[in-house]
Amino acid sequence: MSVVAAEAAVMVPSPGPSVPLVIDDVAVLPALYVSEASQWLTTSTGRVAPDGYSWMQAVHWVAGSGLYEPRRYRSHGPRSFGATTVFVAQLLAELSPCRPGTEYLMRRTGLTKRAVQNHLQMLRETGLLAWELRGTRVSGAPAQASVYVRMIPLEFDKALGIRTSGEGTRRRMTGMAEASRELMARLARKAARKVRRPRSKTPSRTPPKGSRTASSAASVTAVSRGSRCTPMGGGAAGSPTAGTTSLPSESKLSSGEAESPIPKKPKAKAGGRQKLNAVGRRFQLARELTHELDWLRGCSVPRIAWVARNVADAGWTVTDVKGWLHLRGEAARVRRGSGLLAVLLAGAENVLDTRQKRADAVDQWRGAQEASRRHSIQQVRARTERFEGDWEVPSSRSVQYQVEEAFALVREAANGGRHPDQAPGTEDPCAAQGLTDQQIEEMRDRAQSELMQGQTDLIILAVDSMGHEAAERVYGADLLRRARQLTSAAHSSLMTITHR
Q: How far apart are CA 403 and CA 242, in angstroms?
């Protein structure tokens, strides 16, 4: 290979005369890129920089070599290894050990979190940084920053003809080629200078002095040379050579037909908030779900946004999601909320594909909530009416039966007593309640269906109000036995009762 081709391949652009970065018998360097598997200290091909000054020489060489093109490997992020990346590297050179936090770099550089991560990734992909310990991010705990090691890429040593001794990443520099000494001196001067924080590319509202464009200059000339609105002390001046400025009539200005020469500012939206895009709607729905659903408390909002991305894109609200979860059925014990939500929302946007279907599901959910609320109120009211006062229910079941019989005798005495020929306890409770055989059969069917769903409220309420014997004649001994078993199992920590 010729020396001219080698010089053109690895030349560092600079305002001064160009200096070749390689000597003879050195191959043309390929594109500078380090894969993620080689971005660790144990797998890196470079050597550890002895100090921050030597490392900044390698940083400036990479910035001017043009061997690294970020957009070749991804479609987003910075387009080149520029001044901002060099400024981030300068901050890293000041740290010992090199353990920068993302918030620290955001505060020092004024960049966003994503921009800081992109520049750190560029430094790793060029071989200038290597992971010694990767940071951890655990939900509910503070994030731990990564520990980096400043590295000098192998391509830098090859380009400048640097000789090293030793093995692995602990190699040290022992000499360099004579042709590269001038370039090394220029890199040393760059490393000694401090790079300032890059300014924002957004232009200021007030243009600098003397930077007016031709159109603005022409407008100023036209106004200065044109005729005045109100003649003062003589006739109007002649027409200007650069152009004329026509003013609308008073009638057009009063009617609003003429456009104002001053550009109108865009009206602010209601509430001062911009319209959310697709990603914003996903995160908004995820935040509402983590606040509204108890079993999603503490889950990662980005993860929930990814799980609910399909329903969020379909225009679902948190109320629509609650209606759908009511139709699917919720679990009483949840181990991983995001995983359960992913299973429950699978294909939901295809089933409830219209707004009317989602509204019907929400109505059913609200009706179930209202029914549950009324049932709870009835239970509390019945319990309060029965056990109001200082009297406590005896723990023994046989004593409870005796107390119920005594209460029954008191109620009979208050109502005029029992017929003398009628023995106590011989009257039919079903007939006393005015129930027919068909009504008793319907009550038994309803109680059995509730038992299949794990609900024993109907039978327990009948036992509390009518007594054990009367409830047994209505519902049967089998249903009462199953109700007692489910009631005792509900208080056990070894069993969970739910319904589909």
A: 112
Tokens of 231: 């003649």
Return the pLDDT at 111: 92
For the cut 60, the answer to whether the pLDDT of residue 121 exceeds it is yes
Q: Is 168 helix (H, G, I), strand (E, B) or coil?
A: helix
Residue 444: name the closest of 483, 488, 408 by CA: 483
SS3 label, residue 275: coil
Which of 35-49, 80-94, 127-141, 413-427 is predicted least confidently? 413-427
Q: Is 224 left (phi over 0), alpha (psi -120 to 50) or beta?
A: alpha
Q: The whole model's pTM is what?
A: 0.40
The closest of 103, 97, 90, 89 to 41, measured between CA atoms, is: 97
> What is the residue extent of each domain of the chain?
3-192, 278-368, 396-490
Q: Is 431 helix (H, G, I), strand (E, B) or coil?
A: helix
E-state strands within 258-332: none
Q: How many helices (H) and strands (E) in the chain?
A: 22, 5
Nearest Cα to Cα of residue 296 among 309, 282, 285, 310: 285
**CB 387 within 8 Å of CB 393:** yes
C-alpha distances (whole Å) from 132 to each of 5, 38, 40, 95, 313 are 37, 12, 6, 15, 41
What pLDDT is stored for residue 494 in this prediction? 59
**Strands across the sheet containing 129-133:** 47-48, 147-152, 129-133
Q: Which helix (H) or strand (E) holds 148?
A: strand 147-152
At 25, the pLDDT band (50, 70, 90 cuts) reads very low
Query: What percentage of the chain has pLDDT greater than the value 70?
Result: 69
Alpha carbon distance, N-terminus to C-terminus of the chain: 76
Give the angle subtended at the CA of 98 by the CAs of 94 and 104, to the nearest 5°: 75
Distance in angstroms (rounded) separating the CA atoms of residues 450 and 459: 9
Strands 172-175 and 129-133: unpaired
pLDDT tens profile 78-119: 888 999 999 999 999 998 888 888 889 999 999 999 999 999
What value does the CA radius of gyration of the chain take, rounded to a whole number of Å? 41
The alpha-helical segments, DSSP class H, found in 415-456 are 429-432, 437-452
Are the C-beta atoms of 105 and 123 separated by less than 8 Å?
A: no
